Amino acid sequence: MFTIYHNPRCSKSRQTLALLEEQAASANQAVTIVEYLKTPLSVDEIKNLQTQLRCTAIEMMRVKEDEFKAQNLKGASDDVLNNAMASTAKLIERPIVTDGEKAIIGRPPENVLTFFSNK
After folding, report:
1. Enclosing H/E stretch for 23
2. Could you give all domains of the chain from N- to C-terminal order, each with its CATH number?
3. What is the pLDDT of residues 20-44, one digit of tens each?
4. What's the rounded Cα separation, in Å, for the pair 107 and 119?
5. What is the pLDDT of residues 53-110, one digit of tens each?
6. What contacts 23, CB < 8 A, 6 or more positions away?
């Protein structure tokens, strides 16, 4: 089963979702869609995704968003960045796809194919 943290207004997120659904259907896998702007993630969920992504908080963020600058997050600690993503979901890089063990950022959308290359 796959979960995609998705923003339907983002073209890359839509492309990644389409590719994921196509590949998952071929592999008889289910896809759960979480619109993270409507259902914000908790700090614990964000930290779990960082572990699966093998990345730091800043590597999971959209640093060019106005909110990043407005919240003065440059150089902030991981705790501050994680709390910022939990309170301002728009700061989370998108889309993120997970199989429950590992995760990838779907930029470019073809990154999602790594889930299917070893199966």
Report:
1. helix 11-26
2. 1-36+94-119 (3.40.30.10), 39-93 (no CATH)
3. 999 999 999 999 999 999 999 999 9
4. 21
5. 999 999 999 999 999 999 999 999 999 999 999 999 999 999 999 999 999 999 999 9
6. 112, 113, 115, 116
pTM: 0.94
Pairing of strands 31-35, 2-6: parallel
Q: Is the dihedral of CA 94, 37, 40, 2 positive or negative?
A: negative
The set of catalytic residues is: 10
Tokens at 64, concatenated: 């060019």
Q: Give the pairing of strands 96-98 and 103-105.
A: antiparallel
Q: Which residues in the chain belong to E strands, given as ranges?
A: 2-6, 31-35, 96-98, 103-105
